[in-house]
């Protein structure tokens, strides 16, 4: 199985997948926060949630629920509030259905349709991947998948799958880490707490555990030429007007969410000012909203080009590696 770890050294304690707060491997989709109260198995499974963008800022959760309910039963709706005006939302949020089938149907039937109470606003519906997958490291290299499952199943409620990464050179040995698929984000959170306990052991060893970042190279990923790279918190901004600095960038993009940092590099030799910059948001959802806004975004009064960055500071052939996006 090809994964992002195929070139990792075979060790009992490999490098972990980056946590969501790090400068990360892009995720497959915007990530919805799921409730973690009570029994995780009483909540909807992973894959039952969708991201909604282009939402009118005056729309309410009840209006979104009514609109989505024609597809199937809705468990919950979350619209991210505008911190500057609590009576409005930021233009995006999440709808959690009770079943995966309803979420799949919503992607096909609700995308780019209008809200009844807001004619002219076509809401975008995209897949949303909850944090239901865990990275488990520090495993003995001699452990088999059956042995690992036998240890985990009695301890973890909602365990759906175990993927122990095996050595390419020695099929009888594993690479010291595995991925666990849980029923939903709440089950993953509970499992993470169990596995992090000081007295939890696998083969006599303590283990390392964290949420796994979805990877475009992971099992089941679409490797076709048409497959689109996934969003990240990092946004490339091109076509900056002369004199537009970091303060102008921060001011233009703050409406989409909290901005961690902005950067406008020094201009190239012979150029009076840099024509591009970078914005890193605190949350991927804010970056998604900014890129979706496309040519609606202006910096210092001029339209700019926006796209997700593949990696912060990565270049290819002299051009920044970016994906998606829109612009004027």
UniProtKB/TrEMBL annotation:
Q: Where does the record place Acidic residues bias?
A: 1-10
- Positions of the UniProt region annotated as Disordered: 1-49
Native species: Auxenochlorella protothecoides (Green microalga)
Q: Where does the record place a coiled coil?
A: none
Q: Which GO terms describe its molecular function?
A: RNA binding
Q: Which UniProt keywords apply?
A: RNA-binding
Q: What is this protein called?
A: RRM domain-containing protein
Domain RRM positions: 48-130, 132-214, 233-311
Q: Which PANTHER family match?
A: HETEROGENEOUS NUCLEAR RIBONUCLEOPROTEIN
Which InterPro entries does this UniProt record tie to the protein? Nucleotide-bd_a/b_plait_sf, RBD_domain_sf, RRM_dom
Q: Bias regions of kind Low complexity — which residues?
A: 17-33
Q: In this record, what's one Pfam family? A: RRM_1
State the organism's lineage.
Answer: Eukaryota, Viridiplantae, Chlorophyta, core chlorophytes, Trebouxiophyceae
């Amino acid at each position: 199985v090809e994964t992002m770890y195929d070139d990792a050294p075979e060790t009992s304690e490999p490098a972990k997948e980056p946590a969501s707060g790090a400068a990360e491997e892009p995720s497959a989709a915007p990530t919805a926060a799921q409730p973690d109260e009570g029994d995780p198995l009483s909540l909807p499974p992973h894959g039952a949630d969708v991201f909604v963008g282009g939402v009118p800022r005056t729309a309410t959760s009840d209006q979104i629920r009514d609109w989505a309910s024609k597809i199937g039963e809705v468990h919950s709706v979350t619209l991210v509030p505008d911190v500057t005006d609590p009576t409005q939302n930021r233009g995006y949020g999440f709808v959690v259905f009770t079943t995966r089938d309803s979420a799949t149907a919503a992607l096909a039937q609700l995308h780019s349709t209008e809200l009844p109470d807001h004619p002219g606003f076509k809401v975008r519906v995209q897949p949303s991947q909850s944090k239901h997958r865990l990275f488990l490291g520090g495993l003995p290299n001699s452990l088999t998948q059956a042995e690992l499952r036998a240890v985990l199943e009695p301890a973890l409620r909602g365990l759906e799958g175990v993927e122990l990464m095996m050595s390419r050179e020695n099929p009888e040995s594993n690479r010291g880490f595995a991925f666990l698929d849980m029923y939903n984000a709440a089950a993953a959170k509970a499992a993470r707490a169990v596995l992090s306990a000081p007295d939890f052991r696998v083969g006599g060893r303590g283990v390392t555990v964290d949420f796994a970042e979805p990877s475009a190279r992971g099992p089941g990923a679409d490797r076709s030429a048409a497959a689109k790279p996934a969003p990240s918190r990092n946004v490339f901004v091109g076509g900056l007007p002369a004199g537009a600095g970091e303060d102008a960038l921060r001011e233009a993009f703050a409406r989409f969410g909290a901005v961690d940092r902005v950067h406008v590099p020094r201009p190239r030799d012979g150029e009076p000012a840099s024509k591009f910059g970078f914005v890193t948001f605190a949350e991927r959802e804010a970056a998604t909203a900014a890129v979706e806004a496309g040519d609606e975004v202006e910096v210092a009064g001029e339209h700019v080009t926006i796209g997700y960055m593949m990696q912060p500071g990565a270049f290819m052939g002299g051009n920044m590696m970016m994906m998606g996006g829109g612009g004027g």
